[in-house]
## 1
Amino acid sequence: MALPATRPTAAIPAGAALSSEQLLEIYYYLRLTRTLEERLVALYRQTKVIGGLFRSLGQEGESVASAYALERGRNKDILSPLIRNLGSMLVMGAQPIEILRQYMAKADSPTRGRELNVHFNDLEKGYLGQISHLGDMIPVMAGIALTFKLRREPRVGLVYIGDGGTSTGTFHEGLNFAAVQRLPMVVIGEYNHWAYSTPPEKQFAVRDLADKAKGYGIPAVTVDGNDVFAVYEATRFAVERARRGKGVHFIEVKTYRRKGHAEHDDQHYVPKDELEQWSSQNDPVDRYMQRILSADMVGEVDLKDIDDRVRTEVDQATDACVNESLPEAETALPGVYVDPPAADKLWFKSV
Amino acid sequence: MALPATRPTAAIPAGAALSSEQLLEIYYYLRLTRTLEERLVALYRQTKVIGGLFRSLGQEGESVASAYALERGRNKDILSPLIRNLGSMLVMGAQPIEILRQYMAKADSPTRGRELNVHFNDLEKGYLGQISHLGDMIPVMAGIALTFKLRREPRVGLVYIGDGGTSTGTFHEGLNFAAVQRLPMVVIGEYNHWAYSTPPEKQFAVRDLADKAKGYGIPAVTVDGNDVFAVYEATRFAVERARRGKGVHFIEVKTYRRKGHAEHDDQHYVPKDELEQWSSQNDPVDRYMQRILSADMVGEVDLKDIDDRVRTEVDQATDACVNESLPEAETALPGVYVDPPAADKLWFKSV
Amino acid sequence: MAGAEVTFLEALRQGLWEEMERDERVFILGEDVGLYGGAFKVTDGFSTRFGESRVIDTPISEAAIVGAAAGAAHMGLRPVAEMQFIDFISCAYDMLTNYVATARYRAGLATPIVVRGPCGGYVRGGPFHSQNPEAAFLHTPGLKIVYPATVRDAKGLIKASIRDEDPVLYLEHKWLYRRIKEQLPEGEEILTPIGKARLAREGKHLSIISYGATLWKSLEAADKLEKDDGVSVEVLDLRTLLPLDDDAIVATVKKTNKVLIVHEDTRTGGIAGEIAARINEKAFEWLDGPIMRVTAHDVPLPYAPTLEDFVLPQTDDIVKAARWLAAY
Amino acid sequence: MAGAEVTFLEALRQGLWEEMERDERVFILGEDVGLYGGAFKVTDGFSTRFGESRVIDTPISEAAIVGAAAGAAHMGLRPVAEMQFIDFISCAYDMLTNYVATARYRAGLATPIVVRGPCGGYVRGGPFHSQNPEAAFLHTPGLKIVYPATVRDAKGLIKASIRDEDPVLYLEHKWLYRRIKEQLPEGEEILTPIGKARLAREGKHLSIISYGATLWKSLEAADKLEKDDGVSVEVLDLRTLLPLDDDAIVATVKKTNKVLIVHEDTRTGGIAGEIAARINEKAFEWLDGPIMRVTAHDVPLPYAPTLEDFVLPQTDDIVKAARWLAAY
Ligand SMILES: Cc1ncc(C[n+]2csc(CCOP(=O)(O)OP(=O)(O)O)c2C)c(N)n1
Ligand SMILES: Cc1ncc(C[n+]2csc(CCOP(=O)(O)OP(=O)(O)O)c2C)c(N)n1
Ligand SMILES: [Mg+2]
Ligand SMILES: [Mg+2]
């Protein structure tokens, strides 16, 4: 169910209390996410990306805004992103060059070529990479939030789940466990209208993902996922509530996956007009720009500067790593355990 | 949250439309369930029962009443009972001697000594035995209901789940799948206040199991599980609704597990007064007797006759099988597959 | 008469299609199998031909997919459940090993389901899109596991699996999907018997036992050894992993007296161990050298080409290993 | 100085208790582990001593139990997760094999968790309360599997597992819980090194390799063979199944030149295969007879005593097998 595509450009909610510096910082991350992905597409076409490429076009707003509502930095909040939460990771401090290296499987990538795309962590900065198996990160984040609770640390764990991912047993078990334990955890349910080619009506029989929260005894809210302020506000409220020991909160963001599941997917199953409507009239970045400009909190020139800065950063990051080498073959062996330190090199490699 | 223990003994709801023959038949199954279990306890004490013994004391009402609302017989409705749904199986046509043989692992038991207690099926009669892993029967029953739907057969699948069992991932996946497919399936959620030693508040953060249905977009009702008529009515409504193609329905029955998880469990974690209150003032069989007697639809003597008949049947069944032999050792080998017909007998058995 | 050349994937598709045409009890369920035709397009066009009720798009719920298939099978249907990638079968591990595989034995329930999906590496899929699950299910009485390596068997085994009275795990290597082609006879029905291995290459000096993608690498190695070393290598394609074809295994060992087992899966706990144990028990006296294994290294499969190529067994590794064993 | 005699279960309990006293990062989570003390009373009294926040009763959600343990471990805690019966670990199979076991390798994440629970048969538990899951997890780089057979190792291995930097699956055979007793030294801290087998009995003519409950049946068989046949049997207690102690295995093979592997688990795909393969690779020339296996039959474990006794390996089976091999 698509949202009415045109939005009233209301003034910025006072509650948001965002300084123009902050507004520009948010814009920076929105732009960085989109520009970095466009760069990845270019590299993908040049076959420099090893595996698949996953876009978050149209979802940058909810990713950036939800992460921006967290306390960032050492021993602060922790989030676990999905493949379309590149923006969330950038907000938490992931570097463009790290993303580029991951996609190109470079030796110096965060996982040294072992894992793909955004599957990497920096718990110091506050993000835990996902694994492919959907739903698994919910119990894991519950365990992180449990640690915060046991240690009485004023920290919150935030975890994303797609409309499709909510059908997994691990989503259910993890969310129920967190709810019973009243853990400081916030779940962002991304209603982006598709799970690969599967629409919501074939995924669940409720109208909103927020309805699912009722089965866990936790509060939920549904917000316009392409309204940066709405997502930021809702997340900030939920995070602070969780921080005060009030337990789990579920936030549904209605948004739209404007690209295919991955670059190879031609989206033939997507109604063209629906796609057109979301892109022309409900782009989260366009809407954000309108809002902050019309509120006279920033000037065109500020945004232009950021666009230039982002382009330069992405160019520099690309140039810095595009010709880096892949990992040495035998670096595949160490680190399965602390002890033994490396897997055996098999006999036939040395006969 | 215990229900107020005393119940108004209202007249029998007209809607029930149960003839006195039917009322007596229901009484027969209630009495048979309880008497058969008491016999099992005696056999257990004589160490004739091989494994553990699981009681449904206090839950006979919801088991019998819910099963009684189904259409029974060849190619009719199918249910999948849990370990405390002995009453449901008896209603569907399971024989006391089959239960006794199962518990004593006799050669002629339905599973020929391979599985325990009520873990056996008769799809002709309409029951599918559970496996121990809680939650797994929900997807399986969804598959049965899916078959009814695909074949356009006016049949319904009914499956039970405990308050604890609703925490499993398979419960979630199976119920969601059934809801999306609008399958002719009815789920009986048994709120019996305990999952082994775990109370509801440590199992989920909602008040009623019925709240969980909201996350699947299916209707739910909570009924007094110790009121045979209420359970019968609610189930009949849900079953007929499902039969008309209106999809899954969830029924929560509030009841109480008056014995330990199994015979070995001394229930030290159970508040004594709570136990006393449920047994003295809220026993489903006592309440049923009061109801049908006060409504003058049956006489004391009818019940007395049934008690005698049940005792005789249970005595005869016991005598008939208690001294039967266990299965021959090598009967353990056939039937893993159709082809090959039997597992290899291992070499060391014949050297 | 020989038809057009088809790929492994097309042969699998044909097999599924023919069985659905032949038997209306057969239906497909899985994620994105309907209109979209599945992540690898194996069921492309099926929903148009057979309708949405026989090609069912499911939620992302592997345990429910397998469990629902089991329930339908009890009632007489013939479900074919697709795992979008076989890696996700781990989410249905309980349902498959505890409910499905034991059903006939513990309760006399027929559960003729097929669970199929793309497996294997060599495609830069990383640790969660490249797995080889056979060893995790080898230990499951009641389940059958088939693993076609050829275009013909892709078709013959999917048809046989659908007709089998018991649950079958059908593993299809995505590296083979579009890489190998073969002409299949038209008119004649192709059915590959479950439980029978295939002698893929005759030889005298040494036997390689393999399946799936490494079967092809083994054949390549065998040609190289013939050419460069004059070593005559026999290659056995297992085709069915559970139950194993002990007769075929023993026969080749007795013929060449040396055996190299090659699989793509990690070494420890891989199926080669079971095969080695059986050879020991049944043909110990015929062995002129140790039973050796060429397998993946014991690590989760990494993403980078350099790493994946090193971790997974390559043709050269097989050549070196076979050379060593031949000289033993 | 020697303390009082304790059971296997009590030793395990002591080990858990001591680690919780020693290290406040250690906590327990599982079903009914709190006030009730666990289905087998392993954690009886723990919640009173350590409080509900360190002994957490969970919903019936094995995947969440293991997943939450992993998350807590990433943050520096030392979770010990109980499976009420190990049979239910199958519900956490995805979480353990895909998330937990790969975490260090793919992402440099420390995940020092212990997953423990009662396993094994000989107790009339039927197909779902008697399982032996070791083979299903043997195939999982990143995971360790320990399986104590003695009272001392029950304590020494749980303590070592909790202190290990990587995830450990600790398997405790319920048949041993109250059946075996031993005096444990007081004062001295008992730590059993992970990865090291134990020579349970010295012998000259033949080696039996086993673990868990069948270790005791193997020792019984060895005594009988010594007495009745004058055959001197060496018995190796593996103690750790992953990683296997190849040196100890090879050493005993080179000493006696004949090996019988005994495990309670079903035959096909059981761990004996892996051991047989390794012996082949590392000690082929020392073998004076085939490596033979005594295992359970390939069926789900039935409930009736007559059936269970036949399906599972018994002391007499081991005696007969060893006699046959000794005479080979
Ligand atoms: C347990 C599991 N099953 C199947 C898949 C294959 N898969 C990867 S992404 C995807 C669709 C996910 O949809 P959604 O959760 O809505 O996330 P979105 O792609 O829309 O961001 C599927 C089915 C998976 N990753 N995990
Ligand atoms: C997946 C799974 N985990 C754990 C168990 C062990 N177990 C058996 S019964 C039980 C409690 C079940 O409680 P509930 O579902 O409320 O059913 P009740 O016993 O109250 O009828 C548990 C934890 C199991 N059978 N299956
Ligand atoms: Mg989606
Ligand atoms: Mg209960």
## 2
Amino acid sequence: MTAAAVTVTTTWYLLLAAALFALGVVGVMVRRNPLILFMCIELMLNAVNLTFVALARRFGDIGGQSIVFFVMVVAAAEVVVGLGIIVAILRRKPNATTDDLAELRG
Amino acid sequence: MELFVFVVAAGMVLGGAVGVIVRSHPVHAALSLVLTLFGVAVLFVAQEANFLAAVQVIVYAGAIVVLFLFVIMLLGVDKVEDLRIEPFKIQRPAAVAVGAGLLSMIALAIIVSRDAKPPTVTQSEAVQAALDGSHDSNIRAIARDVFSDHVLAFELTSVLLVIAVVATVMLARKPRKGEST
Amino acid sequence: MIDFPILTMLVLMPAIGAVLVALASKRHPDLVKITALGSSVLTGGFSLWVLFAFEKGEAGFQFTSQHAWIRPWGISWHLGVDGISLFLIVLTGVLFPLVIAGIDSHSKSMSDQKRYLSWMLLIEAGVMGSFISLDLFLFFVFFEIVLVPMYFLIGGWGYEKRVYAATKFFLFTMVGSAFMLVGIIATALLAKADDGRVTFDLIKIAENADFAASTGRWLFFAFAIAFAVKVPLFPLHTWLPDAHTQAPTGGSVILAAVLLKMGTYGLLRFGIYLFPEAAVWSRPLFFTLATIGIVWGAIAATMQTDLKRIVAYSSVAHLGFIVLGTFALTTTAVSGGVMQNINHGLSTGALFILVGMIYERRHTRQIAELKGLQKVAPVFAGVFMIVMLSSIGVPGLNGFVGEFMVLVGSFATARWWVTVAAAGVILAALYLLWAYQRVFHGEPDEANQGFEELKWKEASLLFPIVGLIVFTGVYPKPMLERIEPSVKAFIEHVEQHSEYNEPSPGEPVIVEEEHGED
Amino acid sequence: MGVLADTLQGPAVDWFSISPLLVLLGGALVLLTVAALTPPWPKRWYAVFAAKCAVAAGVLSVLLWRQIDSEGSTTLVGDTLVLDKPAVWIAITICLAVFLCALVTDDYLRREGIDGPELYALYLLAALGGIVMAAANDLIVLFLGLEILSIALYVMAASHRKRAESQESGIKYFVLGGFSSAFFLYGVALIYGGAGSTNFNKIVAAMEPTVGSDRTNDALVLAGIALLLVGLAFKVAAVPFHFWTPDVYQGAPTPVTAFMASAGKAAAFGAMLRVLLEALPNWSDDYRPAVWMIALLTLVGGSVMAVVQTNVKRMLAFSSVSHAGFILVGVEAAAHRPGAPMGGDGVSSVLMYLLIYSVLVIGTFGVVTAVGRTGDSATDLAGFRGLAKQKPALALAMTLLLLAQAGVPLTSGFVAKFGVISAAVDVHSYAIAIAAMVSAVIAAFIYLRIMVSMWITDEEAGDVAREPVRVPALLTVAIAASVGFTLVVGLFPGWLINITP
Amino acid sequence: MLDLIWLIPALPLTGFLVILLFGRKLGDPRSGYFATLMVAASFAVTVGVFIDLMSLTSEERSGHVQTLFSWIPSGSLHVDLAFLADPLSLTMCLFVTGIGSLIHLYAVGYMHGDARFSKFFLYLNLFAFSMLMLVLGSNMLVTFLGWEGVGTCSYFLIAFWHEKESAATAGKKAFITNRVGDWGFMMAMFIAFWAVGSLDYSIVNGGGAGMASSTSTAIALFCFVGACGKSAQLPLYLWLPDAMEGPTPVSALIHAATMVTAGVYLMVRINPLLGVADSYAPTVIAIVGAATALFAATIAVAQNDIKKVLAYSTISQLGYMFLAVGSGAYVAAIFHMVTHAFFKALLFLGAGSVIHGMHHQQDMRYMGALRKLMPVTAFTFIIGWLAIAGVPPFAGFWSKDEILLFAYDKSPILYVVGLVTALLTAFYMTRQVIMVFFGKARWHDAHEEHGAHGDLTPHESPTTMVLPLVVLAGLSIVGGIIQLPSWSWIPKDLAHRLENWLGPIVHGNEHELSTSAHDLSGMLALVAITIALAGIAAAFLVYSKHKVKPFEPQILADGWGYDRAVSWVMGKPGRKAFDGVAWADAHVIDGAVNGSGSLVRGTAGQIRKVQSGNVRNYAAAIGGGVVLLLLWFVIARGIL
């Protein structure tokens, strides 16, 4: 195949990850639904994971992969806690958006 | 071939991400998230991180997203968020600016240092042995690495999970009488 | 006698008193008062002891006591007295008992009364400490700690705008000391270079360390700002009228009599002494500010409608003289400045007491509401007159001696400034006499008819001060001969560490025999 | 076939050295399991138990301190933890914080009707996370410690079910926390990309050759540093990453706020020192200006913002921001002398500041807890009106603590500030030193305001009808302890300075 | 006796202290007599010392210093509280204590029945003490002590009836105007001290030779500024007319006989400096003196208040003395000071007696024909009139004549000015005498106007008041004896007695009359006499015979409007300026302070808007921070 002429270097992956991360950041800033806001954070974490894996491959270092493994656990824990809090709040006032949660200010 | 895989997966990842940001219905957003996660999983495979790919699909796409959907359904918070109105005028321009700035900076950093000689990383012999081992080297290697070099981190994750449990107990426990939510 | 830590007692006695007062039970009000008075009287006694045990001819520090306090930072509990600080201590020691005994705090309740007294004693401890500490850190501690009780005194027992005034006083002064703290640390750390270990000891640093000119000047200004605020030197003076006016009488007296002196004293002992070169270099600035202060303060005073504010602004003017003399750096001028500290303490203190008495009788400080008091209360008016004349600087009273020494001494080094400053003397007469005329002269209207004559209690508070005013004015020699040696040494120190040389007047044509030495 | 051949050798573990962690973990687990199985314990027992665990951990840390004195510092568990004085110091600080917070919390929970062991368990676990942060020798370990601490704090902040503010603060803290730790993690990744490892020693080793020579190839690492700083700055509540602080401090249950301000800050700064001085000594010239700038912003921002507040918890939140600024001044000073194993005045001044401030702030919030009254809502200035009449002792204690926060001499606060400033002056960064002192003056204004409403402002008609302020035993102990500490350190700081590393 | 100098001031001081403590008990009139006694005693001592001094040769007479104690010893400044007994100071003491005791006595009668009788003598004794300190001081500072003391006392005494707004104001005005002069005195001391390192007259005067003429000029002129304040010369004379608000004995003692002459005394005291000063210094003094003399005389012409006339005449006579000083005629200055003390005190006391008899009516337009009702007063007053008018052989003639002689030698212009002044003096004094004692009685009109009742016929004053009048009248007649000119028909040993007496003080600096002037002296005397008579005659034509309409334009009555101008300047622009400063202090300086406070609050108020409580905004802020940090690290540090 001629396509093989072009090799996909680690850099590509890193750039992709960066893009994903940036999208996540944008998401956090524009979405109002706490759940979705949350998903955006997940996007950011995934971007990081992608970076780790890519770098791990480049260095031929398995450590990178185990780090990703830990990150996933962290993400899971965060989701659990986060959803817990959100549930508690949404029980109080359904369909609340983050914009509604601004009693404390100034 | 490799290129093809990357392009497709990248497409999934970014498409999904954009979806999460722009789909006004929470459920759709969640599904776009799934798309992204699968794309990432594919890229994992392409990066010879098979085990992680599996975990990604099972834990993320499986557990976490399901959890999201579950909450959405449970609380019926599937109210469509009207994305055309934005209470804070500057918010979106700011978001775009930040996103663009962030991306450009990091991309710049990545590109500038792309040809840097990668540092030599030496694996602990246990891991090395695993890597040399013929079959399912990846999983064994991770396992050995996790239980040797990163054992403390591993233990800490357990603490993290304990906290998660306590948290759910605290937050979800039915309030005793005298308390009102 | 030296082995008795008398200076330490000067600080501890009031502090202990404060604690005791705070702990004393509400059920024995008299006991509270007695405790407070007792400790302050004891302190006063100690200060007098220091005065009489003080070696006349000695230039150096006496009764010194030094104990390590914070070893790792080279900070020690180092106290000492010399001619420059001696009379400030005595003034403090004498004034506090008078104030505590003689001035009613108008406390709402017994617990209020207790608080008032313990704040007072804490102030005394702090003031004493800052006058006798020979360690930069220690000095700063005392210098700063005084703010707190004073803040509560003004805020708790003051008049209408007390909170505003108290806060202003606290923050304004704190800004100043913010710079000084950095300055102190920098001084110590830069001085370290010479002898390995860090020390905050005033004398060690002053004698050993020689800073590069530019460095010295920066450090000097870091110090000077703090003191300039405290003095207060124009244009950093605006906290003073508010604080003075809003403070309760006792507070105003203390504030004027001793607290301000921490500024002038600090300039002398810590500013110039540590950084002679910088001080000499920056003299024109301070001459100018002082002179402006003298005129400005006087003019502002003339235009006040509140009797207390007049006295407050007069302080700005008087302190201007002291700063002028301090920076003139001639023996006469500096001694004059040191002496003027005391004189101003006495006369302005007494003025505040008198104004306070007027307020107690008439519940107003507005000049417009007072009239013809001399007719109904001649003795009261007489005392006021004497104090006022001393404040104006009429010869034969204490005010004149210091003022004249400052001016004549400064003339050699600050000719044109003195020319202007001397004119400030005219203004002093203007604002005080005008106020006096409006308050005491004329036919009293019915509101002022019932104005009470001076009571014995009040008289017993005032007459000691008046006595000192007259005595110092007629026979200042005992004071001067104790101040002088230290001042001489001080100026020699300045001469050694800078290219300044004290000017000496043209040689007299007739030899000195004619001047009886005693 | 070769299964026997490669049996796994895990890294050697010196159990004594990590005993404080184990005690805390064990304590938490006991609280959770045993308390879940047994009927509710009599009042105070949860608190006392937690406090005891903290004390035990603290004592063990002290023993470790001795050990370091004799045998010097080492690394543990396969190079992922360091056992050196700063680490132990932070550990002790945190244990102390847990101890005091437990005492403060006890009556609070019963007053608010949310008694239960969970909160204490979370204290202990969070403490564990904090200690790990400060002792980490590996970015991932540090990150995990961070997450443990943070997630625990999210939950604690949201734990007051009756108060909507509590939950709001929880979600805010959570979202922003997750956001910033994602940045932190990305930073870790980029550094990993530059250095090929997340272990501090390896990072330093890997970067040694490139230092000085052409720097282009570590742009990745620099980007990483930036992102790490973001994560840490967020945790220490440095401007402009501080926005969560006032809202969360105000919303969270007061004792939890105390814990955040004490243990949270201590851990975060410990971690910051680690990362900047241990992992990235070669970049001090790059990040020092950034730290300088952040410090300045934090100092001024914190103090200025505080001035207009009327809610005491919010005031204290902003004041804690400006305190963070002070500590950053110390960090900046320390960054002048990187490398040398956590040496230099900067570090010790920071450590001392952390200890002193932790005790101070817990005492302060302890008083606020009492004044908050049932519902934890009477925390605005009006709540303090006439406190001097009603509870003179409490008012006096509060006054002393506030004066200490303002940095008035003869209080511990002054010693702390003095240390930091002299560290800064010692490395000739005068500008920041003066800025710090001036902003301290601005901050002093709010302390004065609180004092005014306690001592000077006259009570108003409604005030007498208010629920009286109760100061139960354990709370009294906590406040008394912190006041005592404040005064003792203020009068005789020598010993403390001597023992600070 | 010489070592009893200290008694001279000590006695009045004792009087002061005793009355201070027991004044109320002594009461009226005992405290008055006691005070009088004290001053009289001090007069006695003075005489004793005087006699001692006389017995010495002129060389030994100077420089008898008695040091009590060292007052301000500091650095190179050594000021003793010491007295100097020499002919000059003794001369001063003599008439201060002498006239002083007379006036004390007079006051016993005059102040009888006043509510604050004893307080009056308290001040009076304090004044005597201060005045004696002034003249006896052996260094400038002790003089200054007395200088300020007399100023303060005059403040007390002018404002003695302080219930009267005008009196209080007058007192304040006097004090403050004097302060302006004191500024000059202090400057003089500063310069002197740094020039010769001491304030002792012996050293300062002696050092004159050594110091730069500019220095001595400066000292002399600054002293003169002080003198202008104390002795009411242009432009500082303003306070003296107002000072008439005080009781008449005060006006007599302080504002005619003694205090106001202090300036002249000071100038004579430092005459050696004046001698070595640049030549323009004396000229300036002479001009100011002459100008004042003429200026005040013109004003006196149009005054209707019996005391105001005398006040302006005093200013004018003091002008004469400074003219003398400026012309180097120190002896003449002192001579005129003494004679003036006699007759002006006499006149004032006479006026007081009139006022007393007229029930405190001071306006001459409501007097007239009093010579019948108050014969003694009238008689003595007339003597005083002749003396001041310069009619021989009365005291005034001799002194004024001598001054004119020196003035002529200095410059004809000054002489002419002096002459015109003499003319005016004769004129307005005659006017006064006629209006008060002759013509027809006009006092009923006053009473009708004031709608008063009862018998208000003027009456003669009590003995205590009349006695001093008589004594002073005697002195005013023979006063000239002490310094007669050396005319052929005057026995040698009678001539120039004062000059010989003061020799040690002024010798060498006293101006040597040019022969031309010397020869002319007789001529000039005749001119003076004619001028005096002319003035008197003119006044008779106008006021007695009513041949000519009186010429009394308002402008003169208002003192050329100078006073009003000054008070306008003080009141309008001056006050504006002061208010401006006060405003600036409150709004600019303090405004800056409070402004910085509100600035902080303001910014905080703005920033707190960002603290919107909305998570997404916070996230945006964090994101912004991230980008900035990345900019710094990646761009600034990484790539550049």
